[in-house]
Amino acid sequence: MASTDSSKRQRIDPPAQYHNIGYTHGASQIESQGLSHSAPMPHAGRTLKPAHVYEFDANVEQVDYIINEKWDKLSDARQYNKAWDATELVNKEIHKIAQSITEQSHHETKINALLSLCEIGAIVAIGGDRLGAEVRKHVGYDDVLVNVMLDITDLTTVNEKRAVTTDDMQALEEFDKERKGYCVFDNFEEVLDNIKKAMMDPSVATYDQYDDDDEYGDID
Description:
By secondary structure, the protein is mainly alpha-helical.
């Protein structure tokens, strides 16, 4: 039987007949299941997970609707009374994004989450009318959004941070300038510094060297 390097990741899921066959199986067991000696053996007890990239446009659009449309026909006084409801709904969308990210998430999903949170932050910062002004106080002066972003950067490896493109970094820096203009979302610079430090670290290999693993899925 041809030997297989157990440290090399396979790019496709093994055929169904390969399932439940480990490296310790003998030749007779393989032949009894109709496999040739030259067939590659899968990693025992391991499965390949396809990589999925998710976006969060729906969450951003919902925040825009909450702040700028949902109660825009109300008087200033009634908008003021709806401010806490709006704040709760905005924070709910922020937490939905947070709950969608794990350490195993595709690196582009993590970056998309950070950029979408920046968009939400920008909507909060520039929100108009009385409702927008009140939500800006409640959400913009709070640390919920920035803490979620810091949590995501903690779940992002150094190599994944180095996958941030020039356009991505420009979007992050533009949000930093915008939020400073409204004096909201303090400590966002920690998010920027975290990513910039990883991108400038010459001792870390570039993410391109590991990109094939993400394209075909990581092995648990």
